[in-house]
């Protein structure tokens, strides 16, 4: 798994350049946001089950057809699979927060996900909505934990949303 530092160094190494002012500034930003990123991951870890439960409840309140007969979350098995997937996205979002880089999402979550969902007939739209709902809940909880700037929380959730949305045309 790569992080912001190894990714930055790799990019400079591939082009045979020394770290310039932009690289130094990027590293400085990574280290300055480190405490907040770790605290956010701690909030997610401590509250993962309730975040997923709350996000699922909100998603199914907003999209009740998903849990009605014929919906993709109809039956206990499908409902549980939806919540399991939401937990999976949340866990990997926490890894990306700590790493300060979204490559782990590409490698471990997004590669093959669209194809799997399409083959199973799982709609991508509600998946994207669930990810964004979790982002909002996490941001609220991180802010409640005393972290002033929660902007970095957006990155992994928005990356998953963007990557899934671009492919669901």
TrEMBL record:
It comes from the Bacteria. One of its GO terms (biological process) is photosynthesis. CDD domains: APC_beta (cd12126). Transmembrane segments: none annotated. It is found in: Cellular thylakoid membrane; Membrane. (2R,3E)-phycocyanobilin binds at residues 72, 77, 82. InterPro entries: Allophycocyanin_b (IPR006245), Globin-like_sf (IPR009050), Phycobilisome_asu/bsu (IPR012128), Phycobilisome_asu/bsu_sf (IPR038719). The modification N4-methylasparagine is found at residue 72. The keyword Mitochondrion does not apply. Its main location: membrane. It is a peripheral membrane protein. Keywords: Antenna complex, Bile pigment, Chromophore, Electron transport, Membrane, Methylation, Photosynthesis, Phycobilisome, Thylakoid, Transport. One of its GO terms (cellular component) is phycobilisome. Belongs to the phycobiliprotein family. This is Allophycocyanin beta-18 subunit apoprotein. The lineage of its organism: Bacteria, Bacillati, Cyanobacteriota, Cyanophyceae, Gomontiellales.
